[in-house]
Amino acid sequence: MMGRMVPSTPPLGAASPAPARPIAAVRQERLRSHRLSAPAGTVAEAARHMLATQSQEFWGGRWALAARTRGRATVRDVDAAYDRGEIVRSWTMRGTIHTIPTADLEWVLSITAERQRRQAAAVHRAEGIDADEVGRAERLARGALGGGNRLSRKELFEVWEQGGVSTARQRGYHLLVALSLRAVVCQGPVVPRETGPTREQFLVLAEEWITDAATPADPPAEFFVRFIASHGPAGARDFAWWTGLPLGVSRAAAEAASDRLTVVADDPEPQYVVAAGAPRRSGSAPEVVALPPFEEYYLSYADRTVPCAPEFLRAIGPSMNGIVRPIIVVRGEVVGVWTHSVAVGRHADDPIPELFAPGAATDAEISAALDRYRDFITA
Q1: Per-residue confidence (pLDDT) for residue 358, from 0 to 100
Q2: pLDDT tens digit sequence for 285-337
Q3: Cβ count near 134 (within 10 Å)
Q4: Residue 373 contacts residue 340 (beta carbons within 8 Å)
Q5: How many other CB atoms are found less than 10 A from the CB of residue 305?
Q6: What φ, ψ does residue 169 adopt, rounded to 5°?
Q7: Which residue in 73, 223, 291, 309 has the fewest CB atoms around it within 10 Å?
Q8: Is the pLDDT of residue 20 over 80?
């Protein structure tokens, strides 16, 4: 694994090609970009740097942010960021729920929402959801949530049913996604739970909850720069996969952002880093980490063989049902997976590792990585 090489092209303005870079160097650069070896100061700062963090499993998205925060951030710390309105969850791209800084939600949806709506059109037709039905659901939601009110998903569905909008089968879910793509609602503060970590957030009106929205001068260029800052070295194909946008649109965004980026390789297209460079490694960052399902460090690239040997990809996913398993990463290389229950009464159980490369780290290092997660979830 360590002998594979990454082809290189010269940095912008260079007269001669840069030497080929071993895959270990790319991993180290990505660990810094992902704030896994250079953690952010707070949960909100980690979320702002990542821009959009996969969070279809709520506990996993929260752990992704805590793992990128200095010290030993807990699930309560992440929940407090939701409660303060610093971060929200919504379907930001690819029809997938992400955690995103509240201030960035609307401009990101201005780029990604229309494509997601087109992709959902066939399902809407099958469920009998048309524009009038979405409009009725929106009016009912605004009436119930206006004035600072907040509702659980179940409570909002009850409002719709009482107002004559059916939530049968998957209709309620698809109506909720439709209103989220319109930036009418978002998932904000957490729903309290006495027996362990909460599994749910309250739905709120986005226009009332978001008080500091700011649209960048060139949203597509900003989108690309933010992706490279948090995932680089990476390129337009990676950005296209991550956002679900067409490759042509992604290349145009890269071109628009070129004055803020540096080309460091060609694999086979330009691979970029932000011109200012990534922060140096923090001495407090562990070299062995247990990361959540749908982890950005693994999933967010067109080619996942940089962090993981090809023969292990199937064991991690995405599987046939779309699942991506939690991973164990040793100095940038995925060396195994792990499992853990967050069911009532089970969240304090020991996580169970399954290593592909048993000698990649000591038992003590693996245990320390899993202990850090257990401390997070049991706080």
Answers
A1: 86
A2: 789 999 999 999 999 999 999 999 999 999 999 998 899 999 999 999 999 99
A3: 20
A4: yes
A5: 14
A6: 55, -120
A7: 309
A8: no
Contact 89/81 with Cβ under 8 angstroms?
no
Nearest Cα residue to 55 out of 342, 241, 296, 301: 296
Q: Which residues of 143-156 are buried (b: 16+ CB within 10 A; e: fewer)?
A: ebbeeeebbebeeb
* C-beta separation of 87 from 47 below 8 A: yes
Give the least confident one: 6-10, 56-60, 95-99, 364-368.
6-10
User: How is residue 74 written in tokens?
Assistant: 């807990």
The predicted structure's pLDDT at residue 284 = 62
Q: Who wins on pLDDT, 158 or 340?
A: 158
Largest CA distance in the chain: 69
Q: Decide which of 1.20.1260, 1.10.357, 1.10.10, 1.10.287 is the CATH code for 85-209.
A: 1.10.10
Q: What pTM was computed for the model?
A: 0.91
Sketch the domain layout of the chain as residue ranges.
5-33+216-274, 85-209
CB 270 within 8 A of CB 254: yes
Question: Which tokens sit at 224?
Answer: 């690309």
- Is residue 287 within 8 A of residue 32, CB to CB? The reply is no
- Mean of the pLDDT values across residues 150-159? 98
Q: How far apart are CA 255 and CA 269, in angstroms?
A: 12
Classified as helix, coil or strand, 345 is coil
Give the Cβ contact number of residue 287 at 10 Å. 15
